[in-house]
Amino acid sequence: MKPPIFVLLFTILIVSCKESKQQDTTIETQKEVVVDTTNEKEEVLKIMKSYKNAIQNLTTEGTFQLFTQDATVFEQGKVEGTYKDYIDGHLGPELGHFKSFTFSDYQIDVNVSLPYAYTTENYLYTIVLKADEAKGTKERTIESKGVATSILKKIDGDWKIIHSHTSFKKLNQ
């Protein structure tokens, strides 16, 4: 009779260990990851500020690292394509005609929902166009109210813009 009791006790021991191990696994998978959203918002703000500063400095230098290669850009009701398309066919050449580009009354709202962040920017901007003697144009100033929305994604620990949409309306001049 001793062998069956031994087998029964051994079986109970194995089942008990297995249940304990499953319980440990369950506890491990239920741990919640705590994210410092304040820090994430600050990181997103740095990206957006870098882009705004580049535009105010009339350059695209360093901006390609802020966007993914396949980031989509929309401006004033037009699909510009990727960020590279936008720089090559629109913004890059346009910056060459500007004497200055300044933002004012700038406000930004950032929402983080990992791995994404969403921004909304509201601002006024002033562009001073260079005079062009060859075309017979004088220096002139354009003032507009703008709004922009961007979607960023955290990729390999870095925030990157994956979508940008801007629009504006000219102020009374």
UniProtKB/TrEMBL annotation:
Gene3D superfamilies: 3.10.450.50. Residues 44-168 form the SnoaL-like domain. InterPro entries: NTF2-like_dom_sf (IPR032710), SnoaL-like (IPR037401). Signal peptide: none annotated. It comes from the Bacteria. This is DUF4440 domain-containing protein.
